Amino acid sequence: MKSQDIRKAYLQFFESKGHLIVPSAPIVLKDDPTLMFNNSGMAQFKEFFLGNGTPKSKRIADTQKCLRVSGKHNDLEDVGFDTYHHTMFEMLGNWSFGDYFKKEALAWAWEFLTEVLKLDKDRLYVSVFEGNPSENVPFDQEAFDIWKQYVSEDRIILGNKKDNFWEMGDQGPCGPCSEIHIDLRTDAERAAVSGRSLVNADHPQVVEIWNNVFMEFNRKADGSLEKLPAQHVDTGMGFERLCMAMQNVTSNYDTDVFTPLIAKVEEITGLKYTSNEVKNISEEQNKTNIAIRVIVDHVRAVAFAIADGQLPSNGGAGYVIRRILRRAIRYGFTFLNTKEPFINKLVPVLADQMGEFFPEIKSQQQLVTNVIREEEASFLRTLEQGLQLLDKVVAEATGKEIKGEKVFELYDTFGFPKDLTALILKEKGYSFNESEFDAELQKQKDRSRAASEVSTEDWQVLIPGNVETFVGYDQTENEVKITRIRKVDSKKDGVLYQIVLDNTPFYPEGGGQVGDKGTLVSANETIDIIDTKKENNLILHFAKQLPENVSATFVAKVNTDLRTSTSKNHSATHLMHLALRTVLGTHVEQKGSLVNAERTRFDFAHNAPVTDAQIREIEAKVNAEILANAAAQARVMDIESAQKTGAMMLFGEKY
User: Fold this and answer.
1) Got the DSSP string for 235-286?
2) Beta bridge mates, 59
3) End-to-end CA distance of the chain
């Protein structure tokens, strides 16, 4: 089966089981302080697991773009060296929000793999959680008994917390899981060594393809577990690994997910990639293979991140994307002898491959190509100089460890991420003093800005089960009750309190617009609200102090002067967006903005400098619209009707 057919078969199967099919969320997360990127299929549904919102359906299925290059789940260092780890990968997922549980989830997984895809049952192994007495989580007897209906007991493996208890981060929803592994080795290899002994042992042909996570707990800030309001199912299947199994190959890179991209690299460089089926290849060919695998993997991560609105930059998620791209550029420069930008030429191939399921890569194809080309050109200008400096540092070294200060100089002057330098040094038989590097980096951070570490306590729930209502489109003042509070300690801002209300007129920061300010007023006191943000579907009101009586009834009052000025600047942002698209082209889309009471700032990507004449034309068009003083109308309609009227919807925003 071709990869496109495998995707379709999966989604059609779960649609037949009553699941609503939804599109992938963006790779880059906007309102989750615990995650920088979507690292799993469940991230976009986190609010439903926590009980902070209601999904469109109790049963949902999708294919989700995921990125694992930072934090707890980080596969970057393995990419290229093996044949089954990736930065970006697809996770086929099916979800139950308080509906079906273990019995249906495991039965449907087995049915899809063995009856729809007709994978060999004798090659499949399953695992269940052995339990963790220290956290009072028992052995998963229920999953064990269900699996006994489908496989013999010698194919059921008991897994520990590392392998069979899934958590998306240090805090948040989690639970025991039951995995399905497949043994793709030859019959002779399977006869010699049991596949059971190779499960979760990092064998490239004995790999996990499906994980059934039973979301029962929430990991709190102090590390303890509490029961979630309801039991949920979160299952994920590695799409690339499933393609490997279905296409009878022993490497993800030998599937049609990657072969068109590899063919394009071969065409550009004149070098050949050898399949994983070829044995005893030369050391030189192995270096070529690794470089090509790195490039075709990394271009997917970078291209989709840009299409989702995250441009490469020097901080946060943007820096992670820049690191990935620079790692790919350097592999091409050193091992494929590419001295000119070429990775951008892979974008049309990627768009043709994946545009049907992920239309954003088609609609943003030109932008993605332009941004990658500019990034390549910029880094190539300094790469050769940086490599020469590194060679000089190595030549002058007295031992096998390079001083961290020298590695920081490469980072600071030439834009070499430290993991890229570490990789180059490792190839030469050297390492560097990481603590010295970190010390230099910390000095720089301290010089430029105050550290911004934040510690967050658990929620104190005052009114259980309440789902907050936003009334701020129609009201700027109304009666409220506090439903939950928590303390946040930030080195930058000091101690603050986050307050959640049963309903609120305060607009939370979003779409580039700053959050409302105002007051909470009771009969005895007034609390200043200094900011409003949204997190996991909760509207958080920030205050420097808590009310003395948190159970009192308050009147929430928005600062209407600030709101009005901010609203005007927000309207100006939309007018500017229209003018930019009219003058520069329809590829221009908002990639970020800041809207407050004083000013508006609009971020966008364009493949050339904006000329003075174009700036004057854009300003003239915006001012003409303002002077026209067109009558404004507010209308509420469903999303399809809004799209037909010409309403523009930015990918990744929830409407």
Assistant:
1) EEEEHHHHHHHHTT-SSGGGSTTTHHHHHHHHHHH---PPPTT--S--HHHH
2) 96
3) 36
What's the burial of 37, exposed, middle or buried (CB within 10 Å: 0-12/13-18/19+)? buried
**Strand positions, DSSP E, 41-116:** 59-67, 69-70, 73-74, 88-97
Cα atoms in the Cβ-side hemisphere of radius 13 Å centred on 338: 28
Of 87, 75, 74, 83, residue with least CA distance to 289: 83
The b-or-e profile of 468-507 (16+ CB within 10 A means b, else e) is: bebebeeebebebebbbbbebeeeeeeebbbbbbebbbbb
Q: Encoding tokens for residue 615?
A: 């700036």
Residue 50, helix vs strand vs coil: coil
User: How would you label 372-409 residue by residue, b for 16+ Cβ within 10 Å and e otherwise?
Assistant: bbebbebbbeebeebbebbeebbeebeeeebebebbbb
Tokens of 245: 């199994």
Whether residue 96 contacts residue 233, with contact meaning beta carbons closer than 8 Å, is answered with yes
CA distance 618 to 623: 9
In tens, the pLDDT along 556-569 reads: 999 999 999 998 99
CA dihedral 607, 612, 615, 621 (to 10 degrees): -130
Location of structure tokens 């194919």: 155
DSSP string, 516-554: P-EEEE-SS-EEEE-EEEEETTEEEEEESS--S-TTSEE
Q: Give the count of beta carbons closer than 10 Å to the beta carbon of residue 217.
A: 21
Give pTM, 2 decimals: 0.69
Tokens 């034309």, residue located: 617
Segments of the chain with pLDDT less than 50: 71-73, 448-452
Q: pLDDT tens, 413-452?
A: 777 777 778 888 888 888 898 888 888 878 776 654 444 4
The rounded radius of gyration (Å) of the Cα atoms in the chain is 27
**Which residues have CB under 8 Å from 580's CB, separation 6+?**
588, 602, 604, 618
Can you read off the two tokens belonging to residue 404? 């961290």
Q: Compute the Cα dihedral for 354, 355, 358, 362 and give only its sign.
A: positive
Reading the block at residue 147, the tokens are 């699996």
